[in-house]
Amino acid sequence: MTDPTTVFDTNFDFSALSLQLTTGSEKVQAQTIDKLATLSTAGEELLMKFLLQRQSNPPTWIDGKAYQALYRADSPETKNFLQTNFPTGIVQLNSEQGMDYTSLQKLLAEQDFQAADRLTLQKLCELAGSTAMQRKWLYFTDVENFTSTDLQTVNQLWLIHSEGKFGFSVQREIWLAVGKNWEKLWSKIGWKSGNNWTRYPDEFTWNLNAPRGHLPLSNQLRGVRVIASLLSHPAWER
């Protein structure tokens, strides 16, 4: 005997879902994407149509969430769609320093945030030059040499692929909101609890359950000067 609940759950009104996806609040859009991700081909087709309609505009985290749903689907149709329309990912990988951020976008699309965090530091060291690459960490003076374009690209990758939760711009927003008080910032973003620093890597939260602004780590184990330079960079004044 067929379970009537199952019948109800599979008879979705795709017109209503499409309307929610295109005109709903961000919360409604996010919930609709999660629903469509469970509906196989029909849901994937609606998500593909949605991304094509929005392709001419700068991506938001909603686009990132839709992209990730298709990326995870891993069907021949979604693979072909993404390769044709978003060959390097949902975020345009602009660089003035000849950097390739494709691998970082891939890790973030997969929500492998721990690996993406390690790669972010590696990319920042590459931006800083050969000396930073050899030491594998940054001096605060290295940050001054980053182009705004590259820093914004790295930030956008984190922002778009984390439902707007992670990124340097998020950390800066929180930092400004607490009056540039570092102790308050550490507590807000989960880098410190009371007098105890969060220990790397096991005590950090490598998923979207983390506090807002928790990632990326910005070389945080080496003190405040690097993150102070990052959050004060001219990139955020644009």
TrEMBL record:
What organism is the protein native to? Gloeocapsopsis dulcis AAB1 = 1H9
**One term of GO molecular function:** tetrapyrrole binding
GUN4 N-terminal ARM-like repeat domain spans which residues? 8-87
Annotated GO CC locations = outer membrane-bounded periplasmic space
Looking up SUPFAM superfamilies in the UniProt record yields: ARM repeat (SSF48371), GUN4-like (SSF140869)
Q: Which InterPro entries match?
A: ARM-type_fold (IPR016024), GUN4-like (IPR008629), GUN4-like_sf (IPR037215), GUN4_N (IPR032192)
Q: Which Pfam families match?
A: GUN4, GUN4_N
The UniProt record lists the GUN4-like domain at 95-234
What protein am I looking at? GUN4 domain-containing protein
Q: Domain of life of the organism in this record?
A: Bacteria
